[in-house]
Amino acid sequence: MKQNILLQLHPLTKFYFSLFILVIVLIIPGYSFAFAIFPVLVLIAVFAGVSKEFLSIVLKALLSVLIIVFIMQMFFYPGDHVLWNWGIFSIKQEGVDYGLLLTSRILAIGSSFILFFRMTEVRDFVKSLEDKGLPPMGAYVVLSTLQIIPEMKRQANTIMEAQKTRGVETEGSLLIRAKAFIPTLTPLILSSIAGTEERAITLESRAFSAPVKKTSLHQLTKSNVDRVLPIVYVLIIVGLLVWRFFL
Amino acid sequence: MKRSFKDDFNMMAMLLIPIAVAVNLVGFQLANVLRLPIFLDTIGTILVGVIAGPWVALLAGLITNLINAIFNPVYLPYALTSMAIGVGAGYLSKYGFFKKIPKTIVAGVIITFIAVIISAPITVLVFGGATGNTSSLITATFLASGQQLWTAVFSSSFITEVADKVASVLIVYFIVKGMSDRYLSKMNYGHLYMKRNNKK
């Protein structure tokens, strides 16, 4: 497998980058800068080799939100400079400006977080947080949640099929469909809860809650770049703050 | 019974969190499959609040939204709402709100208020009033009829939330009823719902 420099970065370096984008987008006024961030993120995604997933998730998750937010502001933001008028609806210059500002920020911040999760394995991110002081129990909870979700989704389908065979209707009027909800969810929850006791015993038999330092099979390394980059972020942010408020 | 903050986080309670998060997501998915007009995406959080207490539920709410945010960052700011719902459900359970159906419905309404009070400012300040779900349409209708932005967002989210939260707490009520005493006895607030206790 080819090693990618961007993907090799320490998870926290990448996470700080997303926070860095969040802060600079909020510091710098106007929408043109925030919109300009997006092509930069796309470029990073291309270099990291995750552009396809990145763009498809941005489209799926953010596009509809952006359009609706923009339309709402365009029509309903208070202002005097009317650009277009039809009945009770009117588009105002202030609304268009505010809509662009909001959408540019949502786009920049939202896509920077999407990019982060495309470039970082959740496992690595949780491990880096554990190194920073997150209790091992917290790390376990997050990771086992990620594992359990697809499992329980499958199980929910199985239960629903089973309930269908014994006559629970899942189609028809709203009331009939609503009635199918409880016979599906209750067995799912009760059976998953029964499994927690076994897991508790398994964890305890390996001294999970013993108050000692744990060794981990999974180790993360920090390169020089990972030490320098966070300092660069902070310097840029301080510089921007000085420029914005003192000059 | 007096208990400290740390007592809430025992092993059984922590192992309940992944299930609660998955229940939140599965509930949402089921509501979609059955084409129900409500989300039902906080059942797990409320359930944890009821049997394991407010602080565990806070964590469950937070993790739910963090995991949703991996695929849709719009959920991220609403983590605050989920956390507040969890804490609210926990405290309501502590004061015995989930023991009988009428009080459970009251609890559902209180949780609705909590959810609306926390989520409406997020909707207005972060997204300018609409995020593209069903309540956005109602918000737009209110705005078009001349209401102020804040009132429009508050009232539209209350309308969509109240049915959702009352249905969720009732589902939680029936699930807790179905739990065995053996399991409930291991949860922090479980003793409130054990059948043997209630017969006394």
What characteristics describe this protein?
heterodimer; A: 247 residues; mainly alpha; two-stranded antiparallel ribbon; 75% helix; B: 200 residues; Arp2/3 complex 21 kDa subunit ARPC3; 72% helix; 0% strand
Give structural notes.
- The complex is a heterodimer of chains A (247) and B (200).
- In chain A, 75% of the residues lie in helices and 4% in strands.
- Chain A is mainly α and 247 residues long.
- Chain A has two domains: 142 residues, no CATH class; 72 residues, no CATH class.
- In chain A, strands 1-2 form a two-stranded antiparallel sheet.
- In chain A, helix 2 packs antiparallel against helix 5 and helix 3 runs antiparallel to helix 4.
- Chain A is flat and about 65 Å long.
- Chain A starts with a helix and ends with a helix.
- The model of chain A has no long low-confidence stretch (mean pLDDT 88).
- By secondary structure, chain B is an all-alpha fold.
- Chain B has a single domain, classed as Arp2/3 complex 21 kDa subunit ARPC3 (Orthogonal Bundle).
- Chain B is 72% helix and 0% strand.
- Chain B has nine helices and no strands.
- The longest helix of chain B is centred in the C-terminal third of the chain and has 30 residues.
- The radius of gyration of chain B is 17 Å and the shape is globular.
- The model of chain B has no long low-confidence stretch (mean pLDDT 87).
- At the A-B interface, helix 4, helix 5, helix 7, helix 8 and helix 9 of A face helix 1, helix 3, helix 6 and helix 7 of B.
What topology emerges from the helices and strands here?
The complex is a heterodimer of chains A (247) and B (200).
Chain A: H1 5-8, H2 11-27, H3 31-48, H4 51-76, E1 82-86, E2 89-92, H5 93-119, H6 122-131, H7 136-165, H8 174-179, H9 181-205, H10 224-246
Antiparallel strand pairs in A: 1-2
Helix pairs in contact in A: 2-5, 2-10, 3-4, 3-5, 4-5, 6-7, 7-9
Chain B: H1 11-33, H2 43-52, H3 54-71, H4 79-94, H5 101-127, H6 134-144, H7 149-178, H8 181-184, H9 195-199
